[in-house]
Design goal:
Structural class: alpha+beta
Number of helices: 5
Shape: globular
Helix content: 25-40%
Number of strands: 4
Mean pLDDT: 77
Distance between the termini: 13 Å
Number of domains: 2
Radius of gyration: 18 Å
Length: 140
């Protein structure tokens, strides 16, 4: 794995990213993933301590009512993972549990209007606040 030791290595990395055809949605994700796997990129790390309150939001579809149970805002069970499509940070059938230590950030990460304010429409969102039972920790 390559590390960024000099400014020229950062410039080379950015140049490599710019050469990718990210308009081709069928290959863009894998092309970007392969480039990122070549480099060691430092990421911020936080510790989720026991008892910490976390927030999770979900947007309702046109036919859904407000979510009222923990399971509706929880992770996708193993038996339903075939329903998971490719997302911003996951491959098909790979669950990602998005949550935040800040209510506003949980909403902003979920809202399509925040990411695409040009075509803003009315969104109904449920945000849950709670303490999660951590059963495993993954380090990437």
């Amino acid at each position: 794995m390559k590390e960024f030791n000099t400014e020229s290595e950062v410039i080379d990395f950015i140049s490599t990213l710019k050469k990718l055809n990210l308009c081709n949605t069928s290959t863009a994700y894998l092309d970007l993933k392969n480039v990122l796997l070549e480099y060691s990129i430092p990421l911020p790390v936080i510790t989720i301590e026991k008892g910490m309150i976390l927030f999770r939001s979900r947007i309702h579809s046109d036919i859904e009512k407000y979510f009222s149970t923990t399971s509706e805002l929880s992770h996708i069970p193993i038996g339903k993972r075939h329903l998971i499509k490719r997302g911003r940070a996951n491959e098909p059938e790979q669950p990602i549990f998005y949550c935040s230590t800040m209510r506003e950030l949980a909403f902003m990460e979920t809202s399509k209007n925040v990411r695409n304010s040009k075509n803003a429409s009315i969104e109904e969102v449920t945000t849950e606040c709670g303490r999660l039972k951590i059963i495993c920790v993954l380090y990437c």
